[in-house]
Write a structure and sequence with these properties.
Blueprint lengths: L1 E3 L60 E4 L2 E7 L7 H4 L14 E5 L10 H4 L4 E8 L9 E6 L2 E2 L1 E6 L2 E7 L5 E4 L10 E8 L10 E6 L10 E5 L8 E2 L3 E6 L2 E13 L3 E12 L5 E8 L5 E6 L2 E7 L17 E9 L4 E10 L4 E3 L4 E3 L2 E2 L2 E5 L13 H13 L4 E3 L7 H10 L2 E5 L10 H18 L5 E8 L6 H17 L5 E5 L14 E5 L14 H16 L3 E5 L18 H21 L2 E6 L30 H12 L2
Amino acid sequence: MNSIYTDKSEDKGFAELSHDWFCLPLEASQSRVSMHWRIFFATVICVNGIHASGILYPRPSESRETLTLDGIWKFAIANRTEQNKGFKDKWYAAPLHHNVEVIDMPVPSSYNDITQDANIRDHIGWAWYQRDFFLPKSWKSQQVSIRFGSVNYYAVVWINGVEVTNHSGGYLPFEVKITEHLKFGHLNWITVAVNNTLTPWTIPQGKIVYHNDSQRYPAGYYEQQYNFDFFNFAGIHRPVILSATPKTYIDDITINTTSVTDSLGVIFYSVELGGSKIAAYSVIAEIYDAQHRLVAQAKGLKGEISINNPNLWWPRGMNESVGYLYTLKIQLWNDAKNVEGDIYRLPFGVRFIEWNSTGVYINGKSVYFKGFGRHEDAILRGRGLDLVTLTKDYNLMRWIEANSFRTSHYPYSEELMDLADQQGFLVIDEVPAVGLDNFDDELLEAHMQTLKELVQRDKNRPAVVMWSIGNEPQSQKQVSAHYFERVANYTRSLDLARPVTMVLAQSYASDLAAQFLDVICINRYFGWYSDTGHSELITYQMIKEVTAWHEKHLKPVVVTEYGAGALAGLHTDPPVVWTEDYQVVLMEQNFKAFDQLREMGYLIGEMIWNFADFATPQEYFRPTGCMKGVFTRERQPKFAAHFLRRRYAQLT
């Protein structure tokens, strides 16, 4: 018999903690009652010290400097039965090796696949990172911040033994000012505690399950379970960057390009300032083209700038000019002292999005999405930022003639998103709300906070053309209707310039969420999960399915997942499941359906699952991972990749 035990204790004083966070204490008792998980966390993430508004990527300029803390850190995991020992013994107050045996760990990376130790690969709970660093003395007169691209899932950060911030959510950046905690001219050290535990109130969800069968499990044995099929990689996944800015600084920039024609582009902008003496500064806004020529300018914290005959941002395959980017330069000026202040440059594209009951349009032209569901997943590095794999993936997507992808099932790195802007890929930007159930107010607040952080990060990106508020929820449940109505409306309150979607897996007859969306995305695996091996049914079933969704809701439809697993090199004739041959047959039958549906006027995209094979939890029905990729995890093409390339080359 198993027990799910994820209580939310009110004992805020446990382990001398002064605020809410994840605490995973496991006492060395044989009683399950005392061997339980206590999970503390703030539902509305209003993290200590974090900037309330902007989360601009740290870019050096005439007024700004950056210093990366990427590299080799010291690392240790908490003992399975003493999860809180690091807090009780204050590991953050001294060099980590004084308290626990440490190993080297690269940052950014997932820690799971770096060692030969299965305990580290499968670790649940607290892991500890630490390194030291020096700062330039010239930074002493500046405002110094530290920014994490992402830490999965929960992070607590100390500078020189003083806690400076904490953050919940594994896929988005967080930042905090740390000037007062630094030692200029002396050695500093940073400690980060990371916890990968998922609960019914995290995004994504999970649960801790205790196994109470004493014939099979020792006392207190537990495991993490979660309702998604990708491995829950953990660690400091993206760059850690120190930045120095003037004491009065540019905190946030918002750009809107909804008023655009071929002859005139009107750019609406607004700037938020932070720091001291804000009133002493005025704002100069200048726009430069791709050749670094000044094309327009304005003054003020907010306003509009017009560009005559603008070079529009176009996706791949829709125009000869692809991914054209301007640069908005924002400069502060101290009028009294007649000196310049902070400077920040933001790349952006001039384009506008429209949508109706049958389509999505970029700059007035209808879009047909031909692309992928993907994962940030690589051998050894896990979900850690890997510029080599990232660049290779874009080369493969261009080779295969794709124009789009979905950030399934979480926000991807800013470095990856930058290349989407530059290379003209359309992005459906998704939050990590995977397989949601238990639709209570606490989950809703976490969901909305994640959306707020995502929109704040990606609101200025031309590549982002839809917000996806989740993937495959239990949307047939009555309680889900009001939940997703609130989530969809909240997303629109953050951004009205893009359509809102969600990826649905329930039946069109029972789903209660599609009514609140602008575009319907569905995942359907005819011939694989249903009627396995019966490829003769695929075309018929897909046409019926997509048509039913459109007729019920009168909204455009994207098939965001379809596909079959295939072991590279496995062949049979006639084709059977798990062979490369059957993967291609399944694709061929789906293509027949897509062609007919597109002629009917409401199918606006096809995204195969998956771009490449990826790691999953250990499961008897998945041989070392999900094998639905058209490329292997090593990024080598299966037969399906060549077949898909021919398909995408023919689609316009």
